Each structure stands twice: as structure tokens, then as C-alpha cells.
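Researcher: Here's the sequence for the chain we discussed earlier.
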Amino acid sequence: MNEKCSIMEVKCGWDGIAKQRLNSISIDQSKFDHQSIFLSGPYGDDVAAIKQSNEQIFIGLADGVSGCRQHGFDPYEFAHELIDQCCFYSDEDRIHNGSSMRGLIHRSLRSIENKSIYGSATLCLLSIEKTSSRFRSFHLGDSGFMIIRSNHIIYRSIPQYHRGSAPFQLSSFPKNDFFYLNKTRLYHDKPSDGHYDEGHLQSGDLILIASDGLFDNLYEDFILQIIQNHLDNQCSVESLQNVCQILVQSASHARIKRDDILVLLCSIVPSSPLSIDSISSSSSSSSSSSSSIIVDPHEDEDEDESLNLFIFED
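Model: Thanks. This is the structure I predict for it:
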């Protein structure tokens, strides 16, 4: 890869749906600012975020385990806090190997326990270095991702299960004998049980991150076919968003397994020196142009639709 393409940008679209077709907390807690996107609320117990710093782009998705509800815990609250804490510590802890990735998760879980937030969730994390295009990934359970290059799946995370449909899961439970002796049969997996991997991305690569609500209902070949048929050659944000909507609709209509669904589709593109210089110079003269996330420029369109169309830039 030549020097002009060494700094990467990520375009992203997303969509999701709650299996009850209702917001489980009756409020959309999604947040959008210059450096991050936090998706939470309308997707049942699924929560995701994309956050960037000067050096990396950090992506996370957690799926709260619904079985916790019978013990009085809120899987949505746990998944929400897990992603929130992972994003927070991603700013403090540079991720450079499996140990640092798992350390970030350990610190996040400790923070959750200190807040007496209980539950469990599957987790998928990716960290992408902007200058080297190197990715580092972690997943535990059946939330996962795939990397698509030239219309071929070159990497697919492998789901982890204890038995049947019981995925590996990170958890936080009260420190009493009832839970300590595991009389609830709830799983209490550790970050060391998750799978870590790393590699390099290329311009034009696609990263699909999703909860099991997608992968349990659509075969990989069908997912790939939808992307090939509906993603334009420029990988525009509108096209990425459209593909995510079709994937969610197709998975929901398949009815193989009724579940919450949350899907993010990201495109890796090079940032040219010209665009970087333009951003740097304009950021000093205009407060609005210093934003690292650019909303789709169709300002006269419905606000709810435009919020889903962003591009991260260095």
C-alpha cells in the first residue's frame, strides 16, 4: 500500500429491529457527536458503537442475553453499559495485542460491577489503526463480524456456544452464595475465553458487524448476495444504509429464529493527502467543519433518515 493510501477512513451504515417490535425501554438512547456514534434503544437488547480517536477507529457490539430477565436483571442495561465502558477505555488503553484487548474488557467489567449493574452479553470488538490499516478483533459468543474483499468473504468470526443456543457470554452478578455457587445455571465466561485475531485491511474492504439475529436467520451466501446486488460501486453512505435495511428486513422475514437484530456495514476507503489538508485548514477557520463525522448533505430530508448516514474522517 503506498503512502497516499496509508490513512484510512470508514464509511458506515446501520439498521436494526427489536424482536418485540417495540423499544424495550420506550426511549431511544442513541447518541451522535463529532467523534462517535452510539446505537442503543430501538434494537431491543442489542447495542453498538463506533468511536474514533486520532490513531484508531473502535467498533463494538454487544447482545444482552435475555435469559437474565428471569433472575431480575436487565440484559439491555448490561449490554449498554458494556459497550459504553469499552468505548471509554479504548481512549485510555492503546490496543496493540490480545492482552491489551482483553485488559480493556476486564476493566470495563470491573467498572460495571462497581456500579452494581448485573446481567450478561455476547461481545464483538474491532480496533482499526488509521495509519497502518491493521485491525485487531475480539469476539465472545455469537455476535460477530466478517470481512469482505472483492465480493469474497476472507474472514468470518466463529460463534462460540456452550450447548444448543447458549452462547459464551460475559457477565456481572451479585456477590452472594446463590450466584457464586452458580445455582442459577447462568454462564460466567471470561475475556480469556473469547477469540482474538488481527490482520490488515485494504481499501475497498467491507466489514459487516452484527448480532446473532442476522447470522442465525441468513446464510453467508445470501448475505453476500444482498451486498453484491444492492451496494453501489462508490460504497456511498446511502447505499451502505440501504444494504443494512435490506439485510435486517430479510433476516426478520426469514423467521428461523425470532431475535433482536442490529447490523453495521463499514467500507474502508483511503484518505487522500488533499482531503486531510483541507480538513486541517478548514477546522481552524470554522467550528462546524472540524467535525470528524459528516452527515449526509441532503439537509432537507427527514432528520431520522439522515442521522444514519455518516463518514468518519481523519
